[in-house]
Design goal:
Layout (H helix, E strand, L loop, with lengths): L29 H5 L4 H4 L3 H14 L3
């Protein structure tokens, strides 16, 4: 996504299983490569992590 990913828009690099298609590739955006998981972000389950990401999307929506 050359102009960035707007909030609420699924990244074009996400596969059907929600894994990044370009993970580990040099053309992966610096933002994605710099995103470091934390307990706050990941929580104790996949559901908690998805909820955190949804809240971040909503908070950064235009």
């Amino acid at each position: 996504m050359p102009n960035g990913k707007p909030a609420g828009v699924r990244c074009v690099q996400l596969a059907g299983d929600n894994r990044c298609r370009i993970f580990g590739h040099p053309d992966r955006p610096a933002f994605c490569a710099g995103l470091q998981p934390s307990l706050e972000m990941c929580g104790n389950s996949r559901e908690e992590a998805i909820r955190w990401l949804d809240e971040l999307e909503q908070a950064t929506a235009p």
